[in-house]
């Protein structure tokens, strides 16, 4: 959907004569005008920023950039999944992974998850995005299931965080406070595993993904 919306926004910018430096309508207004959801508009705007059509200035608005041949040539070339739809997919897959792991995890494996969370905390304390520790946590959790297919799926989904759309959205919206909250959410998953409670583990993981989705849904304008 976001790819279709991005095409509509490109047409809107060209058709309505938005010149470089002019401000686009707010995200909510664009969603109403195009009759699509705000998440689809959000992902489309980030795609256009990656392509060089617009510039997102947090707290100020979304502005049209000067477009050379490069911006038009790049349109539609990058085709990664949208960051918000990725989180919805991860909630489904990793919720079940957490539930399965809750019945299988031993003390050594739980200690490995705690180590990954400590790595997240250390990176965040130094002002860095703790993606290495975050990735390690989710992969170690998947490995507890002893299912190589689940490990591969979780790895592929997580590594899409590094695609241009997800990276750019994270640059705008991920902050120290959001990472501290994410660490607390990871600890809730560990607690459910320690209690060997599959339902609680599923809920904790799905709640983590839902809150991550919410953190990336703050208005860009």
Summarize the structure.
This protein has helices at 2-15, 27-34, 38-51, 69-74, 83-102, 107-125, 131-144, 148-159, 164-173, 176-194, 198-215; strands at 54-57, 61-64.
Helical percent range?
55-70%
The major sheet is characterized as:
2 strands, antiparallel
List low-confidence stretches: 68-76
Query: What percentage of the residues does DSSP assign to strands (E)?
Result: under 5%
Cα-to-Cα separation, first versus last residue: 21 Å
From the helix content, strand content and strand pairing, which structural class follows? Answer: mainly alpha
Counting DSSP H or I runs of 4 or more residues, the number of helices is 11
Q: Based on DSSP secondary structure assignment, what is the total number of beta strands?
A: 2
The average pLDDT value, as a whole number, equals: 91
Rounded to an integer in angstroms, the radius of gyration calculated over CA atoms is 19 Å
Task: Classify the oligomer.
Answer: single chain
Widest β-sheet, arrangement of strands: 1-2
Shape: elongated
SSE blueprint:
Blueprint: H1 2-15, H2 27-34, H3 38-51, E1 54-57, E2 61-64, H4 69-74, H5 83-102, H6 107-125, H7 131-144, H8 148-159, H9 164-173, H10 176-194, H11 198-215
Antiparallel strand pairs: 1-2
Task: Please tag this protein with its features.
mainly alpha, 221 residues, elongated, single chain, 70% helix, 11 helices
């Amino acid at each position: 959907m976001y790819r279709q919306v991005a095409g509509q926004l490109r047409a809107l910018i060209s058709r309505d004569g938005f010149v470089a430096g002019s401000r686009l309508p707010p995200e909510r207004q664009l969603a109403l005008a195009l009759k699509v959801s705000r998440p689809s508009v959000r992902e489309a705007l980030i795609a256009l920023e990656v392509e060089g059509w617009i510039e997102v200035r947090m707290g100020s608005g979304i502005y049209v950039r000067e477009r050379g041949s490069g911006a038009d040539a790049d349109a539609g070339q990058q085709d990664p999944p949208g960051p918000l739809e990725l989180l919805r997919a991860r909630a489904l897959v990793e919720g079940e992974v957490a539930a399965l792991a809750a019945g299988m995890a031993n003390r050594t494996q739980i200690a490995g998850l705690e180590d990954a969370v400590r790595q997240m905390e250390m990176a965040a304390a130094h002002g860095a995005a703790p993606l290495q520790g975050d990735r390690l946590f989710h992969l170690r959790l998947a490995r507890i299931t002893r299912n190589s297919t689940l490990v591969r799926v979780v790895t592929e989904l997580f590594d899409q965080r590094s695609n241009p759309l997800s990276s750019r959205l994270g640059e705008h919206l991920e902050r120290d406070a959001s990472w501290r909250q994410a660490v607390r959410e990871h600890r809730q998953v560990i607690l459910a595993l320690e209690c060997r409670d599959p339902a609680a583990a599923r809920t904790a993981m799905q709640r983590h993904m839902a809150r991550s989705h919410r953190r990336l849904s703050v208005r860009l304008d």
